[in-house]
Amino acid sequence: VQLVESGGGLVQPGGSLRLSCVGSGFTFNRFAMNWFRQAPGKERELVAYISSTGDLMNYEQSVKGRFTISRDNAKNTVYLQMNGLKPEDTAVYYCNRPRPPGANVPEYWGQGTQVTVSS
Predict the structure, then answer these.
(1) Fewer CB atoms < 10 Å away: N or C end of the chain?
(2) Which residues of 43-81 are buried (b: 16+ CB within 10 A; e: fewer)?
(3) What average pLDDT does range 86-109 have in this prediction?
(4) What confidence tier does 87 reach under pLDDT thresholds 50, 70, 90?
(5) What is the DSSP track for 49-97?
């Protein structure tokens, strides 16, 4: 299993970025996916969740209305569209394949992509 993120970078406050995460080594359309982030000195936090079919999404309160998670199962890719970025969104963003409920399989993480929001 491999998860590879891309799309991070430096952006000014109010700007936008789109993160991508390509999954391989597993049947992508059978798994829900998450985006997490970790800011310096803080714990890793769940930012957004999307179900395996893409019909259910959930967001951390501070990003609701600004971030959109989506997926393209034909491309084995999950996206995080981030609009209206704020300095407090600065973090390393991680793609995550969680352990399905009741399943005896590990969860997996990507290597992370840095997002820096600064003027």
Answers:
(1) C
(2) eeeebbbbebebeeeebeeebeeebbbebeeeebbbbbe
(3) 93
(4) very high
(5) EE-TTS--EEE-GGGTTTEEEEEETTTTEEEEEE-S--GGG-EEEEEEE
